[in-house]
């Protein structure tokens, strides 16, 4: 996906990783969130369960955190302690503002599933994840 070509990402441990190898051949969801946001802290564990189910069923799916945290340390803590193996755009990276505008994200949390060309496949994936988890009970 051209959105990430030649651009660094953070791996699940908070260190840099190669976006191309981490995302190649996978369906990608952008998760707009922050550790300071109470609604995000409620939804993140639900998204984590959904992500784990998809991975265990063999789906090629990856979540990229687009953090609205105000400090690099907060982003890294959120990523490593609460975001179950996901990738993230580094703190202060210009793509954060670019993606907020491009994908029309006025509030967080928001989850957008993308097509291969970077356009939106599912605009309100957050709601779909919540409904699916509710129905699975």
TrEMBL record:
It holds the Pfam family Thioredoxin_8. It is an enzyme of class 1 (oxidoreductase). This is protein-disulfide reductase. Residues 3-137 form the Thioredoxin domain. One of its GO terms (molecular function) is protein-disulfide reductase [NAD(P)H] activity. Belongs to the nucleoredoxin family. The keyword Repeat applies. The gene is Acey_s0775.g2258. The keyword Oxidoreductase applies. Keywords: NAD, Oxidoreductase, Repeat. Its EC number is 1.8.1.8.
């Amino acid at each position: 996906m051209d959105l990430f070509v030649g651009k660094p990402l953070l791996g699940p441990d908070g260190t840099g990783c190669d976006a191309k190898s981490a995302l190649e051949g996978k369906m990608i969801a952008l998760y707009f969130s922050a550790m300071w946001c109470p609604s995000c802290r409620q939804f993140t564990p639900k998204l984590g369960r959904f992500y784990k189910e998809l991975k265990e069923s063999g789906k090629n799916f990856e979540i990229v955190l687009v953090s609205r945290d105000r400090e690099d340390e907060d982003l890294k803590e959120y990523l490593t302690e609460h975001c179950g193996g996901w990738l993230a755009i580094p703190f202060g990276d210009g793509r954060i503002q670019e993606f907020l505008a491009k994908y029309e994200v006025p509030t967080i949390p928001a989850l957008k599933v993308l097509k291969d060309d970077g356009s939106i496949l599912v605009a309100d994936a957050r709601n779909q994840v919540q409904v699916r988890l509710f129905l699975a009970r």
